[in-house]
Amino acid sequence: METVTRKYTHQLHVTGRFLGTDDPELQPLLFVLFLSMYLVTMLGNLLIILAATSDSHLHTPMYFFLFILSFVDMGFISTTVPKMIVNIHTHSRVISYVSCLSQMSIFTLFGCMDGTLLTVMAYDRFLAICEPLHYPVIMNPPLCCFLLLVSFFISLLDSQVHNWIVIQLPCFKDVDISNFFCDPSLLIKLACSDTSTNNIVMYFVGAIYGGTQVSGILFSYTRILSSILRVPSSGGRYKAFSTCGFHLAGVCLFYGTGLGVYLSSAISHSPRKNAVASVLYTVVTPMLNPFIYSLRNRDVKRAMKRFLSKII
């Protein structure tokens, strides 16, 4: 929802006309809708964090990564939605150039960490199901911390590459970003110079980064599925499918909507379609993750009940 003036004026604006933010009748509805979604996301992820820290039964690698994922989702949605809510409330769509770059960098960092953590969680489930006897030895605390640090530094590198690509743009030919946050793919489209090289670099980096993650997840779940099908008891197969099915649903939701954002920005010229895809990717996915990982997870539900019983 903000618009970009020229780079050298250090003022950007983000427009939200495609979301109806210029319609006085829709503004209160959008304000309440996005504020409610933001609060639900923060509350859901906060409950998972508190449950994971307060219950010793959840002090395992699986819940350690879920704990970190909740933190990342809270940061991911907080880089875009609060600014959008303020814009709707104040009828202002101005953002400075430095703030736009900062938002883009932090948003990309959290988004990349989200995908990397989902890959690590898929690897964790692969070891737990396919190598149950070696799992406690392999997934030890030092390795979990190492995987977390690697995820962070890879994500930081990816976010800085996106920032560097945008910083190379000499100026902007338009003042409108047709989205509610500073998306690098849309900023590149606004440059007044030839951006073919920038686009190639950005999508090449995205393809390597995303392709590596998706390949790792597909490999893990292919092996998991093969192992589950060899389980003799139907109860054992159901339990394994139930545990991994919801994680796979979270993976499909994240990568499906994320892919939709990049495809819509590359193929479609409709601001409304870009906005819908972006909302699914940046708002709906972090909001649904707590439900995906807790509704059918007995350990998390029990931990939440024990935690709530202590404070009520």
What order do the strands of the largest sheet run in, or round the barrel if closed? 1-2-3
Q: Compute the number of strand runs.
A: 3
Specify the structural class.
mainly alpha
Please name the fourth-level CATH homologous superfamily: Rhodopsin 7-helix transmembrane proteins
Q: What is the typical, i.e. mean, pLDDT?
A: 76
The CATH class is identified as Mainly Alpha
**Whole-Å distance between the termini?**
40 Å
- Regarding quaternary structure, how should these chains be classified? single chain
Order of helices and strands: EEHHHEHHHHHHHH
CA gyration radius, whole angstroms: 21 Å
CATH fold descriptor: Rhopdopsin 7-helix transmembrane proteins
What summary fits the major beta sheet?
A: 3 strands, antiparallel
Shape: globular
Under the CATH scheme, the architecture is Up-down Bundle
> What is the number of independent domains?
1
Estimate the strand proportion: under 5%
Helix content: over 70%
Helices, by number, come to 11
